[in-house]
Write a structure and sequence with these properties.
Blueprint: H1 20-35, H2 44-73, E1 77-81, H3 91-98, H4 101-110, H5 115-119, H6 131-145, E2 150-155, E3 163-167, E4 170-174, E5 187-198, E6 201-206, E7 212-217, E8 220-232, E9 239-249, H7 263-274, H8 291-314, H9 323-326, E10 327-332, H10 339-350, H11 355-365, E11 366-369, E12 380-382, H12 383-389, H13 391-411, H14 416-422, E13 425-426, E14 432-434, H15 435-441, E15 445-448, H16 451-459, H17 463-468, E16 473-475, H18 482-488, H19 491-501, H20 522-547, E17 556-561, H21 570-586, E18 595-600, H22 608-625, E19 634-639, H23 644-650, E20 656-659, H24 671-677, E21 681-684, H25 690-697, E22 703-704, H26 709-717, H27 722-727, H28 730-740, H29 753-761, H30 767-786, H31 788-800, H32 807-819
Parallel strand pairs: 1-2, 1-10, 2-9, 10-11, 11-15, 15-16, 17-18, 17-20, 18-19, 20-21, 21-22
Antiparallel strand pairs: 3-4, 5-8, 6-7, 8-9, 12-14, 13-14
Helix pairs in contact: 1-2, 1-4, 2-3, 3-18, 6-32, 8-10, 10-11, 10-13, 12-13, 20-31, 21-22, 21-28, 21-30
Bound molecules: pyridoxal-5'-phosphate.
Cofactor: pyridoxal 5'-phosphate
Family: Belongs to the glycogen phosphorylase family.
Pfam family, one: Phosphorylase
């Protein structure tokens, strides 16, 4: 202080200042002190790291004030427990939220660097499979932006979702080494660490005061270490945190005496312990018997709950009974649901609380979000394996169950069938622990993720629970963050929106309604089209670079990107493409409006049919793209390695969004919303949030087709026969025949046969039942596309009426109805 001359220019600190000059100094400091390379050896990735660290400094400063403010005010905090957080690249989003993009651009320019080139250096953390993990990331963005104190808790997987390559049309999985280059966003907190037990047995004893107590004698002990990533809100000081746990060996824990001194055994243990957080499991794959997966879940939940209790202990004059007043614990699907039994264990065994008071705290603290109705996706653990792994938790679950089933019997006397259905222990094909039941019984609030899904939950998988506790059930329709999925990924539209409706849409997406007034304005429509055209050209460049396929940005871009799954029905989309191919072959020169069909998505490595569907898409692509009679009208591209980074190029470039799941199977979807925000029209079924999107935009601006959920149930109950749909539809018969005869596989009649066989023999997702209506609907799409003004009008109205699908709306509902978490304004 004293050595600054009075005449020296007052300038901002290099770690906190938001001006271009302060940022430049921050970058230069990090290049020197954190990167430590000679100037001549500096490459864009070093500038990326230095800028990321400089940005982190600024967030860290906000983070300190945020934590202090909520602690000082004693405000309630949301803890969002999720096995997945699909965060996507961080630098661009953080610059946006701190509102320092142009400052960063200018700072780098002074150093001879280009911001876009530097942004491209980031390797995204792929710590999620798809929608569920991305939802958690959108919710963190909204929580911070809405100034709600929150902690995201999850797993720091060393290898996230695999990188997908396409070789000869097949998916090939490559390990994701996202940490190889280091992760500038996280701060390791080796002192924030907890022990996690596993295996062994539960020992019952009487303590000195004569009370019955239980002590867990573990077979194995490991340690979780916290890594914190700051989560900056948009345009506010609030900076929350994502805490991810990484597994370590416990070096000094002597399990049994004869191991002492066995150095090599100890090192081996260390290696084993660290495998716990090595790899993210794919979803869409049966996980029966995957003990390591249960360990992962228990590991991160135990660390998180111990951390929460620790924070509570550190607060003066706050007892553990106040846990539900200070923290809302949200279970993102059943993956963290072991938390119900773990919190009971911590309260009863470790803190000596009575069962009833511990149970009251537990139920008042937890909320449970269900994400699926698919029976095969509802988690259960085989009882023997569960008991060997978590012996004390099994006892606790039995006790929860005993008391719970008494309550059921009291409410429904004599209904033993209901008791059996509701039990936490399943009896069919071997005993198992039903995690959805545990989550439901242990939570005061249970919600589905779209209106239809929440209704189906109450009518099907959780019907009995709804009848017992109707007041616990609600709907919270998913949402997506307009910061990342509009402002950041569609800068052309961002500028047009700012100019047309003002900047308020970034934090109040319903402001997009202001666009409606321009839907019939010819000048505005032309500008709207120009933005879309530029986004399509940008995507076409990317597709060309990654697949070699050349797409014409003037064609209709028809896009389906999401995990590859039979229920999402990418194969229905392909049947339409083959229909057009067949029509063109039958009738050369047929005037059809030219379309580019774009796919992207990963298949679970063990999901046989999903991998064949990728092969089918690529086989059709190869055939179509190289046939001069066809490729003037249709082209097909499969974008490899769909992730958040390329999603940001894809959603803004769509004219048509494919949301064609079998009705009743997609809980909500969020991809559907990202497309809508960016002005795509949707072709879709009445499934998930599509229903609400159509309500918002108006039936006349949505391409609806297909069976409803009620139809699907009825058709299945009547004994669905796919053959009936083939014999009555020549076009469908011809299309299936082309695949079977090897038309797309160089005469090979085997490679794609499993897909056709599955459709002919069982067709579990009613692809053939919806085919005719889908194709007819696509013909209507083509007709509307030819009327450019009509299409543009519909496109504008889709954006204009997408406001409901902001994650800010969703998070406000969670905070108000479930969590009781209020706004905490943070100031310096
Ligand atoms: C939004 C998103 C998803 C979810 O897409 P759905 O169409 O809702 O299944 C999956 N992966 C990524 C990378 C996403 O951004």
């Amino acid at each position: 202080m004293t050595d600054v001359a009075p005449s020296a220019p007052v300038h901002e600190h290099s770690r906190t200042g938001l001006s271009a000059d302060a940022l430049r100094r921050g970058i230069v400091d990090h290049l020197r002190y954190s990167i430590g390379r000679p100037a001549a050896a500096l490459r864009p990735e070093h500038y990326y790291r230095a800028l990321a660290l400089a940005v982190r400094d600024r967030m860290q400063d906000n983070r300190v004030v945020s934590t202090q403010t909520s602690l000082d005010l004693g405000r309630k905090v949301t803890c969002y427990l999720s096995a997945e957080f699909l965060m996507g690249p961080q630098l661009g989003a953080n610059l946006l939220n701190l509102q320092i993009e142009s400052a960063a651009r200018a700072a780098l320019a002074e150093l001879g660097q280009d911001l876009d080139e530097v942004l491209a250096c980031e390797e995204e953390p792929g710590l999620g499979n798809g929608g569920l993990g991305r939802l958690a990331a959108c919710y963190l963005d909204s929580l911070a932006t809405l100034e709600r104190p929150a902690i995201g808790y999850g797993i720091r997987y060393e290898f996230g979702i695999f990188d997908q390559e396409i070789h000869d049309g097949w998916q090939v999985e490559k390990t994701d080494n996202w940490l190889d280059a280091g992760n500038p966003w996280e701060i390791a907190k080796p002192d924030v660490s907890y022990l996690v037990y596993w295996g062994g047995y539960a020992e019952h004893y009487v303590d000195d005061a004569g009370h019955d107590r239980v002590r867990w004698v573990p077979g194995r002990v490991l340690k979780g270490v916290a890594y914190d990533t700051p989560i900056q809100g948009y345009g506010v000081k609030t900076c929350n945190v994502l805490t991810l746990w990484s597994a370590r060996a416990v070096k000094s824990f002597a399990l049994d005496a004869f191991n002492t001194g066995d150095y090599y055994r100890a090192v081996e243990d260390e290696v084993n312990s660290e495998t716990v957080t090595k790899v993210l499991y794919p979803n869409d794959e049966p996980e029966a018997g995957k003990r390591l997966r249960l360990l992962q879940q228990y590991f991160f939940v135990s660390c998180s709950l111990q951390h929460v209790l620790h924070i509570l202990d550190d607060l003066a004059d706050v007892s553990v009974h106040e846990l539900p007043d200070r923290f809302a614990l949200q279970l993102n699907d059943t993956h963290p649901s072991i938390g119900v039994a773990e919190l009971m264990r911590l309260l009863v065994d470790e803190r000596g609380l009575g069962w009833d008071e511990a149970w009251a705290i537990t139920v008042a603290s937890f909320g449970y979000t269900n994400h699926t109705l698919l029976p095969e996706a509802l988690e259960t653990w085989p009882l023997p394996m569960f008991g060997e792994s978590l012996p004390r938790h099994l006892e606790i679950i039995y006790e929860i169950n005993r008391r719970f089933l008494d309550e059921v019997r009291a409410a429904f006397p004599g209904d033993e069938d209901r008791v059996r259905r509701m039990s936490l222990i399943g009896e069919d094909n071997g005993k198992s622990v039903r995690m959805a039941h545990l989550a439901t019984v242990g939570s005061h609030a249970i919600n589905g993720v779209a209106a239809l899904h929440s209704e189906l939950l109450k009518a099907s998988v959780l019907k009995d629970f709804y009848e017992l506790w109707p007041e616990r059930f609600s709907n919270k329709t998913n949402g997506v963050t307009p910061r990342r999925f509009l402002a950041l990924s569609n800068p052309g539209l961002r500028d047009l929106l700012d100019e047309t409706v003002g900047q308020g849409w970034l934090t109040d997406l319903t402001k997009l309604r202001g666009l409606e007034a321009y839907a019939d304005d010819a000048t505005f429509r032309a500008r709207w089209r120009a933005v879309k055209r530029a986004n399509k050209a940008r995507l076409a460049d990317y597709v060309h670079a990654t697949t070699g396929v050349e797409l014409n940005p003037d064609w209709l871009f028809d896009i389906q990107v999401k995990r590859i799954h039979e229920y999402k029905r990418q194969h229905l989309n392909v049947l339409h493409i083959i229909t057009l191919y067949h029509r063109l072959k039958q009738n050369p020169g047929l005037a059809i409006s030219p379309r580019a069909f774009i796919f992207g998505g990963k298949a679970a490595p063990g999901y046989f049919l999903a991998k064949r569907i990728i092969k089918l898409i690529n086989a059709v692509a190869d055939t179509v793209n190289t046939d001069p009679a066809v490729n003037q009208y249709i082209k097909v591209a499969f974008v490899p390695n769909f992730n958040v980074q390329n999603a940001q190029l894809i959603y803004p470039a769509a004219d048509l969004s494919e949301q064609i799941s079998t009705a009743g199977k997609e809980a909500s979807g969020t991809g559907n919303m990202k497309f809508m925000l960016n002005g795509a029209l949707t072709i879709g079924t009445l499934d998930g949030a599509n229903v609400e999107m159509r309500d918002e935009v108006g039936a006349e601006n949505f391409f609806l087709f297909g069976l409803t959920e009620a139809d699907v149930t009825r058709v299945k109950a009547q004994g669905y026969r796919p053959a009936d749909y083939i014999t009555t539809n020549d076009e469908l018969a011809a299309v299936l025949g082309l695949i079977e005869l090897g038309q797309f596989s160089g005469g090979d009649t085997e490679v794609l046969r499993p897909i056709v066989d599955s459709l002919r023999n069982s067709d579990p997702f009613l692809v053939l039942a919806d085919y005719a209506e889908y194709v007819a609907c696509q013909d209507r799409v083509s007709a509307v596309w030819r009327d450019t003004d009509a299409w543009t009008r519909m496109s504008i109205l889709n954006s204009a009426r997408s406001g409901k699908f902001s994650s800010d709306r969703a998070i406000t509902e969670y905070c108000d109805d479930i969590w009781g978490v209020g706004r905490v304004s943070v100031r310096d």
